[in-house]
Design a protein that fits this description.
Blueprint lengths: L7 E5 L6 H14 L7 E5 L5 H8 L4 E5 L16 H6 L4 E4 L2 H7 L3 H14 L2 E6 L3 H5 L3 H12 L12 E4 L13 H18 L1 H6 L1 E5 L7 H5 L6 E4 L6 H9 L3
Parallel strand pairs: 1-2, 1-8, 2-3, 3-4, 4-5, 5-6, 6-7, 7-8
The structure holds phosphoenolpyruvate.
The site of phosphoenolpyruvate (PEP) has 14 residues, from β8.
Amino acid sequence: MPESRVPFVAGNWKMYKTIAETESYVPALVAKLPVGKPVDIGLCVPFTDLAAAVAAVGDSEVRVLAQNMHQAPEGAFTGEIAAPMLLELGVHGVVLGHSERRRDFGETDRALQDKVPAAIAAGLEPVLCVGESEDEREAGETQRKLRHQVQEALLQVDDEQLADVVIAYEPIWAIGTGQVATPDQAQEAIAFIRALVGDRSEEAAARVRVIYGGSVNSENAGEILTQQDVDGALVGGASLDPVAFAEIVAATP
Ligand code: PEP
């Protein structure tokens, strides 16, 4: 990874942890983090934990992210959360288009087309998730799927702002399955995603961070994170344990 791109490692807690658990997790994580390592660290926590997480990280280098947001700044959208509400809490960024939201909650590429620029405009760092299913990989459709998802979601983002997006390559078959992508598979898909950004702007392609997600743990992290185009990891299950998550952060080159 060139020095111009600082690694980004984020834990996605999904629908785990209460406020009390957040308050004990964060100091345990901060105590175990490698000192002085150039790496951006994020915790993507449930909405109900955001305020507690922001308070607990204090002035440590850990940033707090939400796991979704609505594209509108406010409105009659019962049960939704808007960017200004996240900002008010001191939230740094937001995960958008996670495959669980696409699969279980009807998240569409069309909505993401509005959500990604809305997050940037609000000053939130978007982490856009893309990835193919097992069937799509077996049918040789991986690149077609990635091209579609990346182009759609970034359609309304100006070229100058493309590098403000973190893109997470998360093959669906690797999420929560223990079946991690090989380092070669991760490198190949991430280089392809970088080239897609390069079709819009070479300068953005050199700067945009593209990270891998899918069954990363403290044992396999090192091999994946040292691939040339892999700029970090989005970690689900293994991030629930602060010690294991700190070990993954320490595995960044
Ligand atoms: C995720 O939820 O984004 C994820 C990658 O999960 P896991 O690490 O558990 O596969």
